[in-house]
Design a protein that fits this description.
heterodimer; A: about 250 residues; alpha/beta; 4-stranded antiparallel sheet; 12 strands; about 30% strand; B: about 450 residues; globular; disordered N terminus
């Protein structure tokens, strides 16, 4: 089994509303897949279900991640196994200092993986280096997590977490929303630096714009809870030209 | 038999004063002190412990306290060594002069210096203050009429200090007064008298702790008088026996342009109440803040009354509580703005974090405004840990228990940020972390919060 993640016939609902109606998606190590779709297609539901957020009922299907049943794992177990979701709207958590949070998260993951915890000095050095790459001032690391951060700062903080935690599989949930072109470029550069032969990514977006900077290997179109079309990166261009109108109609 | 009949007809809890023997209490040679003690005892015997029909005690029942019987200090301190004390006091306030009382008796051995070790502040034992009648005297700010419990404390007061800073003197080194109870069933009535002259400056921390898990009763009274432009940082840790009762009645007179910064961290006692009354002078500043972390069946009550008697003063209160198990938080905050107190700025907020379905909070803000040009607001919130925050932390690999501990710590740390004095803030923070370590299973590093990002 060489696939990193296999999603088969995944159906999910919130309360009585069916959102995902049979998703099939397989991603091999090193591949970058993009999921595009109109509002209400189920993009956020898919990322939340993968990350393990409460409130979604899985009614059918399976998700296998590194050979394990992902849907049975707690959110922290998924993270320890190598799944990382970059949130569309990262929450502000007053009182939790960003650097404290980052060290706690990194050590929790290292511990779960059977690795030694990193000490304060080594961590500070690592953090400074990684933050520097993303143009994050150390001042921001001393502030409460995401609290009062601008939209761009929040997304950069997400990229910093992704960089530090070294996940095998990244889900980027509409990372481009609320970003101006400069912030988008910084974030995309951060993502591209993390691309490797082992690391896979699922880039979820409404707009083709992000895919100019993070060029995917495969593009899928999600409409009304199903993947209605798949193709190469040129599919994104086509969607940008023609819009989602026809495809959404085809899925209904 | 006759004793039983008698106790049935006495007001509730008055047996607590049964050990009263004027001749054995400090200051017996001073007629004024004798008269004060007697008046205080009579006031307590007439009123008894307040019941829940008393609006100020509606949510806090003293019936458990009334059923206990306590011994009065016999003038002998229980044995305890420095290491045992330091384990309870944890990180002492950096650079502070620690003055320790054990079972109501001053302990030079457990103190880190003599009474005159800090330049600029006169520190005298309560016995001396009562004997010579010099300086701020008991009853000047917290009168016998303030409450039956304050009256009981005044009748029996023993152990404590008078601290005075003359006008214009700024004292940098903090004074840390520690009251330790070692004997089960002991009732102590400590008293602190703090008097700052005009433009004087001082930092005082009080710690109350016990080395027994049995019922003890600390019934403290603190009286504070600040001259014009004076600045007092006044902080408190209460970490007493889980079966203990802790009552503190505090009266503060804040002079014109003076500033009073208060923070109380409550962790211990089965029942605790901090009752604070502050009288604000013109353009003065009064911060009453606090945090409490309680579980099991603990009750923590904060009751404040801020009197804006003069114009242009600013009062600011933020209390934050973490309530687990079947514990119960009570907050009653009253702000009174007198007709002359124009341009008053009063703010009050109570926030409770409920960690269980059986945790309870009663918050009762009260504004009495008789002036027309004022800015007063109050708020109260109660809720559980934010699910989105927990999910976010867990999605980064932090296990649920650690995520909860992190958020609880953050909640209280945010309250601690209001403490102006850095050394005090650090000491209190250590206690918050220790509480979390004891009560929230998690493997978080104890130093989370102090990162090496410089």
């Amino acid at each position: 089994m060489t696939n990193l993640i296999e999603i088969k016939g995944l159906c999910a609902r919130i309360e009585d509303k069916e959102i995902l109606k049979g998703i099939d998606l397989t991603i091999a190590p090193g591949e970058v897949h993009a999921i595009m779709g109109p509002n209400g297609a189920g993009k956020s539901t898919l990322s939340n279900v993968l990350a393990g957020r409460d409130g979604y009922e899985i009614t059918a299907g399976s998700v296998t991640f590194k050979g394990q049943n992902l849907l049975e794992m707690e959110p922290e177990e998924r993270a320890a196994a190598g799944l990382f979701m970059a949130f569309q709207y990262p929450v502000e958590i007053p009182g939790v200092v960003t650097s404290t949070f980052l060290r706690t998260a990194l050590n929790a993951i290292r511990k779960a993986r059977g690795e030694d915890e990193i000490d304060g000095i080594a961590f500070a050095k690592l953090l400074r280096a990684k933050a520097g790459e993303l143009g994050i001032p150390t001042d921001m690391l001393k502030r409460a997590l995401n609290t009062g951060f601008s939209g761009g700062e929040k997304k950069r903080a997400e990229m910093l977490q992704m960089t530090l935690l070294e996940p095998a599989f990244c889900v980027l949930d509409e990372t481009d929303s609320g970003l101006d072109i400069d912030a988008l470029r910084v974030v995309a550069e951060g993502v591209n630096r993390l691309r490797s032969a082992e690391r896979s990514m699922l880039v979820i977006t409404h707009y083709q714009r992000l895919l100019d900077y993070i060029v995917p290997d495969h593009v899928h179109v999600l409409a009304a809870g199903r993947i209605v079309r798949s193709g190469g990166k040129e599919l994104a261009m086509e969607l940008e030209e023609k819009g989602y109108g026809d495809l959404a109609g085809a899925a209904a | 038999m006759s004793a039983v009949t008698k106790s049935e007809t006495r007001p509730a809890g008055t047996a607590l004063a049964d050990g009263f023997e004027l001749s054995r209490l400090p200051g017996a040679g001073n007629a004024a002190v004798g008269a004060l003690r007697t008046a205080a005892r009579d006031a307590f015997l007439a009123a008894g412990l307040p019941g829940r029909r008393d609006e100020a005690w509606r949510y806090t029942s003293l019936s458990g306290l009334g059923r206990e019987s306590f011994a009065l200090p016999d003038g002998k301190a229980g044995t305890l060594d420095v290491a045992a004390l330091e384990a309870r006091v944890l990180d002492d306030v950096e650079d502070a002069l620690r003055l320790a009382f054990v079972d109501g008796v001053f302990s030079p051995a457990l103190s880190t210096g003599a009474l005159d070790a800090v330049e600029g502040v006169s520190i005298r034992l309560l016995d001396t203050v009562l004997a010579d009648g010099n300086g701020l005297q008991p009853g000047e700010i917290v009168t016998v009429e303030e409450s039956p419990l304050a009256a009981l404390s005044t009748a029996l007061m023993s152990g404590g200090l008078g601290l005075a800073v003359p006008a214009g003197v700024a004292v940098e080194r903090p004074v840390h007064v520690v009251f330790v109870t070692t004997k089960p069933g002991l009732m102590t009535s400590p008293r602190l008298l703090i008097e700052l002259g005009d433009d004087a400056k001082l930092t005082v921390m009080e710690s109350y702790t016990s080395l027994t898990d049995a019922a003890v009763f600390t019934n403290a009274v603190v009286e504070v008088s600040l001259g014009a432009g004076a600045e007092l940082g006044h902080y408190k840790l209460q970490n007493e026996s889980p079966a203990g009762y802790h009552i503190s009645t505090q009266g503060v007179v804040v002079g014109d342009n003076a500033s009073y910064d208060n923070f109380i961290l409550t962790l211990g006692a089965t029942l605790s109440r901090n009752q604070i009354r502050a009288e604000l002078g013109t353009a003065s500043l009064c911060h009453l803040n606090g945090g409490y972390m309680i579980h099991d069946r603990q009750l923590a009550d904060t009751s404040s009354f801020i009197h804006h008697a003069q114009p242009d003063a600013n009062s600011h209160q933020v209390y934050k509580g973490v309530i687990d198990g079947q514990a119960h938080g009570v907050f009653a905050g009253k702000i009174r703005v007198a007709p002359d107190a124009q341009r008053t700025d009063g703010y009050q907020l109570n926030r409770a974090l409920l960690l269980s379905d059986t945790a309870e909070i009663n918050a009762k803000p009260e504004l009495e405004i008789f002036a027309d040009d004022v800015k007063c607001s109050h708020g109260a919130t109660a809720g559980s840990l934010d699910e989105d925050w927990l999910f976010y932390l867990r999605s980064r690999g932090i296990p649920l228990a650690e995520a909860q501990a992190l958020l609880v710590g953050a909640f209280i740390e945010e309250a601690l940020e209001t403490v102006n004095h850095e050394g005090v803030r650090a000491a209190l923070s250590t206690h918050v972390a220790a509480w979390r370590g004891r009560n929230m299973p998690s493997s978080l590093p104890a130093d989370a919060g102090a990162e090496a990002i410089e």
